[in-house]
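ARCHIVE CARD
Drawer: 12
Card no.: 0347
Subject: one protein chain, sequence and derived structure
Cross-reference: see card 0346
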Amino acid sequence: MKKITTIPDEWQNIAHLFIALGDAHRQRILLAFEKEERLNILQIAAASTLSRTAVTHHLKILHQSGALQSEKIGKEVYFWVNKSQITSAIKGVLHYIETEI
């Protein structure tokens, strides 16, 4: 058995992403996006049972974890799923499982 005292740096982002994805509200927000779709906060809130404030809170966590990307256009901020970040994290975990366990 290996003694693990710290999480490797390359796993820090993975941990934040999985923590963000561990919440059912955030999962539903991600599932609201169609392929290649960009949505603003009002559109996401309209598709949710949560208040706009709660949606904003969850979007912040998803964005900080790398699950969502965003761009401000005029006064609106548009979000979209960061497929490359999520895919990379899952591949990293699978690689570890396949090679180290």
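Annotation on reverse: The chain has five helices and three strands. The first strand starts at residue 39 and ends at 40.
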